[in-house]
């Protein structure tokens, strides 16, 4: 119910620009459609859980349904480069389904090659792996399953905050290695109670996080382009900070919950990080490119950032030599927070619903649109 409420509580506004003259007809014409899905490999884990729908092997659980209607459904993990499996299908596919967890980067060049493409669907939340301006200019429709994994990500963020605050990972590593040194852990372990936590972005995920933090008796701050209504703000117990640079130095813990846009790319650069409180903890499940990669490494190495945790990287999948893998005081994981089994069930159902509407020539739920009629959703402007 929390997910349903989050998914329907706000509707994305779109820009006031006139619809593109190049808009491609979203309503599917008669006949078979070629639908391509790009997902991560499940390998031996694919058969371990019938609800593990987000992998290549299980393909969102929609193959039988699509093929029974005469459509062609191709799934692949091979997405990068001119010789990739995805590239072979670009010229004649009608629908491309991608995910933030194993992103197929849909560039302007790929969009130009995709002469039959009408619909780009994100199985999950976050469509910045798509060149949205190029999609809008080409008259494509881009949609995602808004709200499908907001609970999953908010819970994960809370977990990461506690892991960093309590200095959990070094203690776990002691156990694994056979050591026992309480002092090595406790000298930098704290309570969460009484700390100032600020979220950069207070949309669906940010608000859920603030609600979950309230019982910990923290001082809660938030920065967003839109202030919450007074009743909700009072209920959560969070204070609005209009000036981001005024909020950040107040925070013991900073959580990133803003989309990746031209305005937020590299938002946390060397200069902004230098202004943060020494010993700050940062959690980022939003997008890796919001952070300056080397600036984070340098600040973790100096101790200015006392702990950094997240599951988003730039690029993704992260190469083996990515410096965040080896910097001190980090608690990084692959991009997993929004792809729990519960989230997979929700975003698989959402994709199926939108495909069904596409075949019938019906509109999607308004909040799912990222690009429609040549217009971008407001959070990506």
Automatic annotation (TrEMBL):
Q: Which keywords annotate this record?
A: Mitochondrion, NAD, Oxidoreductase
The record's subcellular location field reads: Mitochondrion
Q: Per its UniProt record, what InterPro entries does this chain match?
A: D-isomer_2_OHA_DH_cat_dom, D-isomer_DH_CS, D-isomer_DH_CS1, D-isomer_DH_NAD-bd, FDH_NAD-dep, NAD(P)-bd_dom_sf
Q: Which residues form the D-isomer specific 2-hydroxyacid dehydrogenase NAD-binding domain?
A: 159-337
Q: What is its EC number?
A: 1.17.1.9
Q: List positions binding NAD(+).
A: 204-205, 224, 259-263, 285, 311, 335-338
Site keyed Important for catalytic activity: positions: 287, 335
Which enzyme class? Answer: oxidoreductase
Q: Which residues bind substrate?
A: 125, 149
Provide the D-isomer specific 2-hydroxyacid dehydrogenase catalytic domain boundaries. Answer: 67-363
Give the principal location in a single coarse category: mitochondrion
Question: What does it catalyze?
Answer: formate + NAD(+) = CO2 + NADH
Q: Which family does it belong to?
A: Belongs to the D-isomer specific 2-hydroxyacid dehydrogenase family. FDH subfamily.
**Main role?**
Catalyzes the NAD(+)-dependent oxidation of formate to carbon dioxide. Involved in the cell stress response.
How is the subunit organization of this protein annotated in UniProt? Homodimer.
In its UniProt entry, what is this protein called?
Answer: Formate dehydrogenase, mitochondrial
């Amino acid at each position: 119910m929390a997910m349903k409420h989050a998914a329907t509580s706000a509707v994305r506004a779109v820009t006031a620009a006139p619809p593109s003259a190049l808009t491609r007809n979203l309503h599917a014409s008669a006949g078979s459609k070629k639908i391509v899905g790009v997902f991560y490999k499940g390998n031996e884990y694919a058969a371990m859980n019938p609800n593990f729908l987000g992998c290549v092997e299980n393909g969102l659980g929609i193959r039988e349904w699509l093929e029974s209607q005469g459509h062609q459904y191709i799934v692949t993990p091979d997405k990068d480069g001119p010789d990739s499996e995805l590239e072979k299908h670009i010229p004649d596919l009608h629908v491309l389904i991608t995910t933030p967890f194993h992103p197929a980067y849909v560039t302007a060049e790929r969009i130009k090659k995709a002469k039959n493409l009408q619909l780009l669907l994100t199985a999950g939340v976050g469509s910045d792996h798509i060149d949205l301006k190029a999609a809008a200019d080409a008259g494509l429709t881009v949609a995602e399953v808004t709200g499908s994994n907001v609970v999953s990500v908010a819970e994960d963020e809370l977990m990461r905050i506690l892991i960093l605050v309590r200095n959990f990972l070094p203690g776990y590593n002691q156990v694994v290695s056979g050591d026992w040194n309480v002092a090595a852990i406790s000298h930098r372990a704290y309570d969460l109670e009484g700390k100032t936590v600020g979220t950069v972005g207070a949309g669906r995920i940010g608000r859920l996080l603030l609600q979950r933090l309230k019982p910990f008796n923290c001082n809660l701050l938030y920065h967003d382009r839109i202030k919450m209504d007074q009743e909700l703000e009072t209920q959560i117990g969070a204070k609005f900070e209009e000036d981001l640079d005024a909020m950040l130095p107040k925070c013991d813990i900073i959580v990133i919950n803003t989309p990746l846009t031209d305005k937020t790319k590299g938002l946390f650069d060397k200069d902004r990080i230098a202004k943060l409180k020494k010993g700050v903890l940062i959690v980022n499940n939003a997008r890796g490119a919001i952070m300056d990669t080397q600036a984070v490494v340098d600040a973790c190495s100096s101790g200015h950032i006392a702990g950094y945790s997240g599951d988003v990287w730039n690029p993704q999948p992260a190469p083996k030599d990515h410096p965040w893998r080896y910097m001190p005081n980090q608690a990084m994981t692959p991009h997993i927070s929004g792809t729990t089994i519960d989230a997979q069930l929700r975003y698989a159902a959402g994709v199926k619903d939108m495909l069904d509407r596409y075949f019938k020539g019906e509109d999607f739920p308004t909040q799912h649109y990222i690009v429609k009629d040549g217009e971008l959703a407001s959070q990506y402007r």
